[in-house]
Design brief:
Blueprint lengths: L1 E2 L10 E6 L11 E16 L7 H9 L4 E11 L5 H19 L6 E8 L6 H14 L5 H7 L8 E9 L2 E10 L12 E6 L5 H14 L4 E2 L9 E6 L13 H23 L7 E9 L2 H13 L1 H8 L5 H9 L11 E4 L2 E5 L2 E2 L2 H11 L3 E7 L5 E8 L3 H8 L4
Parallel strand pairs: 4-5, 8-10, 9-16, 11-15
Antiparallel strand pairs: 1-6, 2-3, 3-4, 3-10, 6-7, 7-8, 11-16, 12-13, 12-15, 13-14
Helix pairs in contact: 1-2, 2-3, 5-6, 7-9
Length: about 400
Amino acid sequence: MKTLDTKNFSIPGYKAWGITSGIKKSEKKDLAIIFSDREAAVAGVFTKNRVKAAPVLLDMVRVKSGKAQAIVANSGCANACTGKRGLADARATAEITAQALGIKPDAVLVASTGVIGEFLPMAKVSTGIATAAGLLSGIGWEQAAEAIMTTDMYPKLSIVQEEIGGKTITVAGIAKGSGMIHPNMATMLCFIVTDAVLSAPLLKKALLVSTEKSFNSITVDGDMSTNDMILGMANGAAGNKRIAPASKELKKFQACLDTVAKTLARQVVRDGEGATKFIEIEVRNAKSPVEAKRAAMTVARSSLVKTAIFGEDANWGRIMAALGYADVEMDETRTDIMIGKAKIVEKGLGTGKAAEREASLALKQREVQIMIDLHKGKGSATVWTCDLSYEYVKINAAYRS
């Protein structure tokens, strides 16, 4: 597998672009189109929030066909909690895009992100789609990534290539996400495209596996959005022999998809609203992988843990307390905790001031590693989170102003 530079990359058979259409109050980009020059297999993973935005409801139905050709996405307005009008606006957005691209409306998927409870300014959306469609470019991915940002500080992109069946296949993705990040999934949009040949059911299965390893293994603030979605498209432009289930080729493809998804997920955490630390939490020797994941996520979403790390305070008691309410089999007298290379807890007891000083130094770094050994089995899991800072409160207190 080869990781490519995310500047001006291209994927055979696809074009993309992002523009400023006036949906946002600022002059920032707010509308993007991704277009395949041929019909593509499609799959999606969607928020588990019971309150779902109009684009999510529309796409959940449309991906069942297993076919699509375009994605249109806007930022600045979530089109969530907008009733019948919101659903009609989502359908109209797809129809306007289809007309601009010369394809069927059912071949267009729609995504939105931004403020909940506001209606899309459809006149601006319509004009923006016409403009963006006319600017589509094979190297327009960075522009598209910028157009789906809300409180993000930078666009998120990833691209890899692999040899499959004697052909070079490409897997690439863009994502947005900074706050309101928590499984399942997070306030994020992610669009992953490939030129590989594989069926929609196989793409969906692979996408679910990658999602669990990546976007369902991150948390910024414990809030789950109404608009989250990951859409995957495979247009077959690479011309490889169709990837078969349980094949070596599928393993290679899965590795590519996992790499792109994990790279994007980590970028989301690094760009967490107000974040000053990127935190990796690994749980080892839990009763099962499920319990390991549950324990790791419980620690990761603890506000007390996150604020202690922001303050560079090696307060391991907060980690132990979180493990105690994680609903997993654990015994504090068998639990070890490391911060960086410092073993700060052994068999449930603190190891002394020297270890705390070493752990405090580790917490001063931009990237922090926490390892927890439960000594209960063979299950392991790794998740990613960030600290909780004063800036997070400022950003979200003024989100609509």
